[in-house]
């Protein structure tokens, strides 16, 4: 199977691998996918008081494209506001990594992961920090599987 | 140690073997103007006679490995064609208009696709097929097989050695069951010839499929054993000049046949040596990886050929594992070459869960595999597993003591 150089680069040298303290109130955790489907992504973000993503970490069980999609996502969300991060589209990830059509679902999963992480974070801080004007609820990912642990 | 300009270490002998140089050398003598290029069916000149003699010699060599009569060997293009000819040939002969014996066939869920897809085709033609589940060890339970036999059963088709697991079925015992009931017994021996002793004078096997390229012979060449006593009759699937006693028409590919004969001759001579060699290498390989946690051997190792070794590494995903093992030419239980992520149907049939089926690797080694190959393979595997587990959220959860089967995953 021919992977693009960018996928290979992220696969060989994944960025921001690791874990953040999931009980920390400034950390949001999104876990999406299922082992039986061949991919599970765990994305964690650490959000500053003014709503900026300071840190991002991931671990992914999945194919090279899934690992690359989540690795790239952590690079992209760092420094973004929750609103900006929530607007990252799977198509942007797929395009950047030149994913073949059969691997598009990996980028979809990455988009689901950041939305789930944001949702988890917002759930922690309650509505007071959630931005009423946000359109992040456009996400149809309400699986809540981040509570797996 | 590894460099990108070197070819990956070949550990996919169950997919195909390199030809033994002795085989290639022999085949070269039957191609060119100064060689024996004649058509074995030409009866009117020496070119034909010499070619026919070479074909006869090869027939003896193939028969000798399995203790059969050379007259019982029919040349085909490979084990797939042999399986098709055996199964369709029997079904059409015994289940066709001429007889009313029946239209029921028994096989297993872990057969090669050449058997399974042929059976599917017969189902479309109105035959009924029972697909037996193997035990978790990969073995077929003879009691279950016997229970599936009916008055209208015409054929049982069970492979000798499974291509993914290496598990050896007890075909001698199955032959007793089928013969007692007058049911024809076909065995796909593509993976067993040259690896396991086969004695067709004592085993009650009626039809046996062989491949040349799995035992250091050429691709595109195979044979079907068709028993003469008691006589097994089948309907031809390829019609033409009446070659191979009408069972398989088509000009004989002398060089291919000679290659297969030479490969079988060498196999008979070297089988014991070959199997000792690979048994030592398998042990070395297993010793090198078994202390990694959550490693599962697929199939019953004690009842398997040593040249095929199938293991699963839990909490790593199959396609990324193969990607990490780019310096190894191995086969994965996850069908990553096809677009869909489908775990191996053989491992699923054993009851392995999807994750373990996905993360399985089949190492198949052979005559030309060295200790150095195995040691390098161990290094690559260990590095890959370590890397991927460090990346795996499932591994973290396992380490935290979370039961993954209790987690509610969001299916996607």
Task: Walk me through the topology.
The complex is a heterodimer of chains A (149) and B (412).
Chain A: H1 5-12, E1 27-34, E2 39-47, E3 53-61, H2 64-77, H3 82-86, H4 90-97, H5 104-125
Chain B: E1 9-10, H1 21-27, H2 46-65, E2 73-76, H3 79-94, E3 104-108, H4 113-124, E4 128-132, H5 142-148, E5 153-157, H6 171-181, E6 184-188, E7 207-211, E8 222-226, H7 254-289, E9 295-297, E10 308-313, H8 318-324, E11 328-329, E12 331-332, H9 345-349, H10 354-358, E13 360-364, H11 371-391, H12 393-399
Parallel strand pairs in B: 1-11, 3-4, 3-5, 5-6, 6-7
Antiparallel strand pairs in B: 2-8, 7-8, 9-10, 10-13, 12-13
The count of β-strands of chain A is: 3
Task: Summarize the biggest pleated sheet of chain B.
Answer: 7 strands, mixed
How much beta of chain B, percentage-wise?
5-15%
Number of strands of chain B: 13
SS-derived structural category of chain A: alpha+beta
Radius of gyration of chain A: 14 Å
Number of helices of chain B: 12
List the total number of helices of chain A. Answer: 5
Give the neighbour order of strands across the main sheet of chain A.
1-2-3
Largest pleated sheet of chain A: 3 strands, antiparallel
- What's the rounded overall pLDDT mean of chain B? 93
Flag low-confidence runs of chain A.
Answer: 127-133, 135-149
Helix coverage percent of chain A: 25-40%
Structural class of chain B: alpha/beta
Percentage of residues in helical conformation of chain B:
25-40%
Mean pLDDT of chain A: 85
Q: Supply Rg of chain B.
A: 23 Å
């Amino acid at each position: 199977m021919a992977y693009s150089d960018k996928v290979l680069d992220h696969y060989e040298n994944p960025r921001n691998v690791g874990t953040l303290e999931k009980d920390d109130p400034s950390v949001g955790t999104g876990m999406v996918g299922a082992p039986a489907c061949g991919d599970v992504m765990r994305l964690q973000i650490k959000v500053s008081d003014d709503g900026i993503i300071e840190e991002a970490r991931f671990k992914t069980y999945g194919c090279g494209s899934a690992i690359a999609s989540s690795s790239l996502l952590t690079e992209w969300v760092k420094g973004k506001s929750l609103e900006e991060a929530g607007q990252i589209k799977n198509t942007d990830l797929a395009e950047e990594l030149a994913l073949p059509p059969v691997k598009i679902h990996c980028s979809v999963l990455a988009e689901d992961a950041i939305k789930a992480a944001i949702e988890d974070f917002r759930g922690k801080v309650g509505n007071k920090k959630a931005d009423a004007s946000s359109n992040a609820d456009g996400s149809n990912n309400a699986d809540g599987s981040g509570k797996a642990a | 140690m590894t460099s990108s300009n070197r070819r990956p270490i070949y550990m996919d002998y169950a997919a195909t073997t390199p030809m033994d140089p002795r085989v290639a050398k022999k085949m070269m003598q039957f191609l060119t103007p100064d060689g024996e290029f004649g058509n074995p069916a030409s009866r009117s000149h020496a070119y034909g006679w010499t070619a026919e003699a070479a074909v006869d010699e090869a027939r003896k060599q193939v028969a000798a490995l399995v203790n059969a009569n050379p007259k019982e060997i029919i040349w085909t293009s490979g084990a797939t064609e042999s399986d098709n000819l055996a199964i369709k040939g029997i079904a059409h002969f015994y289940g066709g208009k001429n007889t009313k014996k029946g239209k029921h066939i028994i096989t297993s869920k872990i057969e090669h696709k050449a058997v399974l897809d042929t059976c599917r085709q017969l189902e479309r033609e109105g035959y009924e097929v029972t697909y037996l589940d193997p035990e978790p060890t990969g073995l077929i339970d003879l009691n279950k097989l016997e229970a599936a036999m009916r008055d209208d059963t015409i054929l049982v088709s069970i492979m000798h050695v499974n291509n993914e697991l290496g598990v050896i079925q007890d075909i001698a015992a199955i032959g007793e069951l089928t013969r007692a009931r007058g049911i024809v017994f076909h065995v796909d021996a593509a993976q067993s010839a040259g690896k396991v002793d086969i004695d067709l004078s004592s085993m009650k096997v009626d039809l046996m499929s062989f491949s040349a390229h799995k035992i250091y012979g050429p691709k595109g060449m195979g044979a079907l054993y068709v028993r003469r006593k008691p006589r097994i009759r089948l309907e031809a699937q390829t019609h033409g000049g009446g070659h191979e006693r009408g069972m398989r028409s088509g000009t004989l590919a002398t060089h291919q046949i000679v290659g297969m004969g030479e490969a079988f001759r060498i196999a008979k001579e070297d089988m014991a040596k070959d199997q000792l060699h690979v048994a030592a290498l398998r042990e070395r390989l297993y010793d090198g990886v078994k202390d990694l946690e959550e490693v599962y051997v697929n199939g019953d190792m004690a009842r398997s050929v040593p040249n095929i070794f199938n293991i699963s590494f839990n909490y790593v995903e199959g396609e990324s594992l193969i990607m990490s093992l780019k310096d190894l030419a191995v086969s994965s239980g996850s069908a990553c070459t096809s677009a869909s992520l489908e775990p191996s149907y053989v491992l699923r049939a054993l009851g392995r869960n999807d994750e373990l089926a996905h993360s399985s690797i089949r190492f198949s080694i052979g005559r030309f595999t060295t200790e150095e190959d195995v040691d390098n393979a161990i290094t690559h595997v260990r590095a890959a597993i370590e890397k991927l587990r460090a990346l795996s959220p499932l591994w973290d959860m396992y380490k935290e003591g979370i039961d993954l089967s209790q987690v509610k995953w969001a299916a996607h």
